[in-house]
Write a structure and sequence with these properties.
It is a single chain. By secondary structure, this protein is an alpha/beta fold. It folds into 2 domains: about 5-70, Fe-S cluster assembly (FSCA) (GMP Synthetase, Chain A, domain 3); about 80-325, P-loop containing nucleotide triphosphate hydrolases (Rossmann fold), CATH 3.40.50.300. It has 11 helices and 13 strands. The strands form 3 sheets. An 8-stranded mixed sheet has the order 8-9-5-10-4-11-12-13, with helices on both faces. β1 and β2 form a beta hairpin. α2 (about 105-115) packs across α11 (about 305-325). The radius of gyration is 21 Å and the shape is globular. The two termini are about 25 Å apart. The model has no long low-confidence stretch (mean pLDDT about 90). The structure holds adenosine-5'-diphosphate and magnesium ion. Adenosine-5'-diphosphate (ADP) binds next to α2, β12 and α9.
Length: about 325
C-alpha cells in the first residue's frame, strides 16, 4: 500500500490510495495482486498507471509477481443523483455553431468508443432539423412500444433513440418550442434507457429550442463543441461555446473535424485556446469517415481510429475530473 501511495493519477494529481482506487489487495508470500478501480473504463491513462504501479512495487526488495487488474465505477454527476426519472450517470451534449461540421459523426463515434471500453451508453438524437443518427447507425426500424414506454433501438452496442422516430420527416421545420419541449421530455422520460454510464446527445446546431429544452429538463454534465478548421470557424466555435455557456453547461472542450489539405488545420485548436477551453483532439477529413456514415456503420467499428479513441478518452477523463472535483 505504501508503495502504491507513491503513484499519482496523472489527471487527478492525487495518489491512488488516497483516491480509494486500490481494491482487493492480496499479498501471498512475495506475490501481490490488486484491482485499480478507475472512474471510467475509457481512462486514457491506463498504461501509464500500470507502469507507474509496477515501477513502484518493484522498488520493494524481494517482491514477487505483480497482478494488476483494471475495473471502473463511473461516477455520477451529483446533480443527477436521486433523480429516478433519469437513470444516467453523465449526460454529454454534442453541439456546434453550425451544421454539417460533423456533430453527428463525432457523437456516434464518441458513443461507440465509450461503449467499446465497457461503459453502458445511450445515444439520443435531438437534432430536430436533421435527425440522421438512425441512418448513420443503420437502425431505421421504428422502436417498439410497451405500455407507452419506448424501447430504444439497440445497435452496435448502443441504445439509440431519435427525434426521427417520433416526428414525420419534413415536419420538423414548422415545429414550435412547446412541441420540441414535450418531445424532448418524451425522449428522456418515456424511453426505457436502463442504467447508463453515459447518455450522448446529438443536438441541432446553434442555440435554439432543442438546446434550451434539454438544458431545462436535465442537468447536462458537459458539452463537446465540434468545429472545422476553416477561416470562419473561430466565430462558429465561439457561437457553439457561447450557446452552452448561456445555458450554464460546462464545456468539456472543442473537437476539430475535417482537418487536412483541403480545409487546413489548427483553427479549432486556436479557437479553443482563445476561448480558454480544452482542445479535445483533431480528426482528419477522410472519405472513409463519410462512407461509413453512408453505410450505416460507425467508422470506429471498421477502422481502429486512435484519433476518435483519444477524443473519447479525453471526454471521459474530463467528466471524471469534474465529478471528483465537485465532491
Ligand atoms: N472527418 C470527416 N471526413 C469526411 N467526412 C466527414 C467527416 N466528418 C463528417 N463527415 C461527413 O460530413 C457530413 C456531415 O457530417 P455530420 O456528422 O452529419 O455533421 P452535422 O451533424 O454537424 O451536421 C456527413 O456526410 C459525414 O459523413
Ligand atoms: Mg447531425
Amino acid at each position: 500500500m505504501a508503495a502504491l501511495a507513491t503513484v499519482n493519477d496523472p489527471d487527478l494529481h492525487k495518489d491512488l490510495v488516497s483516491l480509494g482506487f486500490i481494491e482487493n489487495l492480496q499479498i501471498s508470500g512475495a506475490d501481490v495482486s490488486f484491482t485499480v478501480m478507475l472512474t471510467t473504463p475509457a481512462c486514457p491513462m491506463k498504461e501509464r498507471i500500470r507502469r507507474d504501479c509496477v515501477d513502484a512495487l518493484q522498488r520493494i526488495p524481494g517482491i514477487g509477481s505483480i497482478d494488476l487488474k483494471f475495473d471502473a465505477r463511473v461516477r455520477q454527476d451529483s446533480r443527477l443523483k436521486g433523480k429516478a426519472n433519469f437513470p444516467f450517470k453523465n449526460v454529454i451534449a454534442v453541439g456546434a455553431g453550425k451544421g454539417g461540421v460533423g456533430k453527428s459523426t463525432v457523437a456516434v463515434n464518441l458513443a461507440v468508443s465509450l461503449a467499446a471500453s465497457g461503459a453502458a451508453v445511450g445515444l439520443l438524437d435531438a437534432d430536430i432539423y436533421g435527425p440522421n443518427l438512425p441512418s448513420m447507425l443503420g437502425a431505421e426500424e421504428a422502436p417498439q412500444q410497451v405500455n407507452n414506454i419506448l424501447l430504444p433501438v439497440e445497435k452496435h452496442g448502443l441504445k439509440l433513440m431519435s427525434m426521427g422516430f417520433l416526428i414525420p420527416p419534413d415536419k420538423a421545420l414548422v415545429w414550435r418550442g412547446p412541441m420540441i419541449h414535450s418531445t424532448i421530455n418524451q425522449l428522456l422520460t418515456q424511453v426505457d434507457w436502463g442504467d447508463l454510464d453515459y447518455l450522448v446527445v446529438d443536438l441541432p446546431p446553434g442555440t435554439g429550442d432543442a438546446q434550451m429544452s434539454l438544458a431545462q429538463q436535465i442537468p447536462i454534465t458537459g458539452a463537446v463543441v465540434v468545429t472545422t478548421p476553416q477561416g470562419v470557424s473561430i466565430s462558429d466555435t465561439r457561437r457553439g461555446i457561447d450557446a452552452f455557456v448561456k445555458l450554464e453547461v460546462p464545456v468539456l472542450g472543442v473537437v476539430e473535424n475535417m482537418a487536412g489539405d483541403i480545409f487546413g488545420s489548427g483553427a479549432g485548436e486556436a479557437a479553443a485556446k482563445e476561448m480558454n477551453v480544452n482542445f479535445l483532439g483533431r480528426l482528419p477529413l477522410n472519405a472513409a469517415i463519410a462512407a461509413a456514415g453512408e453505410r450505416g456503420v460507425p467508422y470506429l467499428l471498421e477502422e481502429d481510429s486512435s484519433a476518435f479513441k483519444e477524443i473519447a478518452g479525453h471526454v471521459a477523463a474530463a467528466l471524471s475530473v469534474g465529478a471528483l472535483g465537485a465532491r
